[in-house]
Design a protein that fits this description.
CATH superfamily: Tgt2/MlaC
Number of domains: 1
Structural class: alpha+beta
Strand order of the largest sheet: 1-2-3-4-5
CATH topology: Nuclear Transport Factor 2, Chain: A
Shape: globular
CATH class: Alpha Beta
CATH architecture: Roll
Oligomer: single chain
Number of strands: 5
Strand content: 25-35%
């Protein structure tokens, strides 16, 4: 699955299209492989259970737009070669281990996947580890601190502000 998505992304980059169209098509690919709801649930931790379903939906919408927009801000990174080093599957979870070199800097990337009942039981990524640093846990440290100190509404305000800055 990951290798076919990698090929799909690389073919999008090689297409004779404008960067805006490439970014739009990359967003579609990213939407198909990342479970933003699960990643957002991890990022909010225990605070997830303290907010309404409507607040969760709003959070996931804004959070996913930020993650997508940040991940496609530099199209060159998707041109890096990727080596698939292994996969471990345990029931409905899996870890795909890869290595890559971008601008002469080697990195290890792990994709943590689960079968998502919300997404037709497809394998979806809910976390990425870059050289053993968890993306979801990085968001968790930041978001949970804001919610603890200033509340969920302050986090949403901050995320919406960030979203508008990235969109420019």
């Amino acid at each position: 699955m990951m290798e076919s998505r990698d090929r799909e992304i690389k073919s999008l980059l090689d297409a004779a299209e404008s960067d805006d169209l490439r970014r739009s098509r990359l967003k579609e690919v990213i939407n198909g492989i990342i479970d933003f709801r699960e990643m957002g649930k991890t990022a909010l931790g225990d605070h997830w259970t303290n907010i309404s379903e409507q607040e969760r939906d709003s959070f996931v919408t804004v959070f996913s737009q930020i993650v997508r927009d940040q991940s496609i801000s530099n199209l060159d990174i998707y041109r890096a070669s990727i080596t698939y080093d292994g996969i471990s599957v345990e029931g409905s979870t899996a870890v795909v281990r890869t290595s890559t070199v971008y601008k002469d800097v080697p990195a290890r990337v792990e994709y943590h996947l689960h079968k998502s009942a919300r997404n037709e039981n497809r394998w979806m990524a809910h976390d990425f580890l870059l050289d053993d640093v968890s993306t979801a846990q990085g968001y968790a440290r930041s978001f949970q601190s804001v919610v603890r100190k200033r509340g969920f509404d302050a986090l949403m305000s901050s995320l919406r502000k960030k979203q508008s800055q990235i969109a420019k």
